[in-house]
Amino acid sequence: MAIAVVVQGQFGESRSASQIYARRRLMVFLVLTAIVLVLLVGTGRVVANRGGAPASASMIRPANAPAVATSAATNIYVVQAGDTMWSIGQRFHGHRSLANYVDELIADNGGTEIQVSQPLTLP
Questions:
Q1: Between 20 and 30 A from 28 (CA), which of 35, 39, 45, 98?
Q2: 77 with 115, same domain?
Q3: Mean pLDDT for the stretch of residues 92-116
Q4: What does the pLDDT read at residue 48?
């Protein structure tokens, strides 16, 4: 034996309890779907914007860019995407102490702030 519950609406229309339940479930589904989409789009933008480089760009080294350019008088390194003073120091410190090399690198180039394609003087 099924009992049908009829609810009187605000404007005089009548709806069954199952219609109201289905409509509420649909609204909850739509709200949750909208929240998930907003989170996915926001996360995608954060992940894709690694230092202003597009997501398809190599963050280690561009394939066609030279890693080191040398001058006759001094060694010059051209900063690539993803470089830090520490990573540059690790590559070029040679037999010297890494910490001392990085300190010299920072002193020779006027601070720790570097930008892509900026030339750095290597100590």
A1: 45
A2: yes
A3: 87
A4: 58
pTM summary value: 0.41
Whether residue 103 is predicted with pLDDT greater than 50 in this model: the reply is yes
Q: What separation in angstroms does the CA of 106 have from each of 44, 48, 93, 110?
A: 34, 29, 13, 6
Supply 92's token pair.
Answer: 């070029």
Q: Which amino acid is at 75?
A: N
Q: H-helix or E-strand containing 15? A: strand 14-16
Number of Cβ within 10 Å of residue 120's Cβ equals 20
Q: Are 89 and 101 in contact (CB under 8 A)?
A: yes
84 or 51, greater pLDDT: 84
Phi, psi of 29 (to 5 degrees): -60, -45
**Dihedrals φ, ψ of 121, to 5°?**
-85, 125
Domain of residue 11: give its range: 6-48
What φ, ψ does residue 101 adopt, rounded to 5°?
Answer: -65, -45
